[in-house]
What we know:
Elements: H1 2-12, H2 15-26, E1 29-30, H3 31-35, H4 42-54, E2 58-63, E3 66-71, H5 77-84, H6 94-105
Antiparallel strand pairs: 1-3, 2-3
Amino acid sequence: MACTLDIIFSALADPTRRAILTMLLEDDMAVTDVAEPFDMSLAAISKHLQVLAEAGLITQEKRGRVKWCKLEPDALKAASVWMQGFGQFEPVNLDAFERFLARELEEPPELPDATAS
């Protein structure tokens, strides 16, 4: 499982690959459609897709002359289970934390100067 997690997290480490996965949440996409929003060559996108496929995060299939990409959501299950192991910690309530910090960082009220009398 450690090897699988290494491959998955390595694939997820790149922001382009994460963006591709987000795009594939909507629906299957042709490789050319995946490449469209990125400022890189089709060959570069194909390499990113290959990394995602090797990690099992997507599958690719040829339909006619077009290569399609499909998200494999179950592939993230092992990573999700591993991360949930850290869920024993209380979630941080950021609003309450911000209020606490505001109170702690407030300037203390000025005391009357005892030497002014």
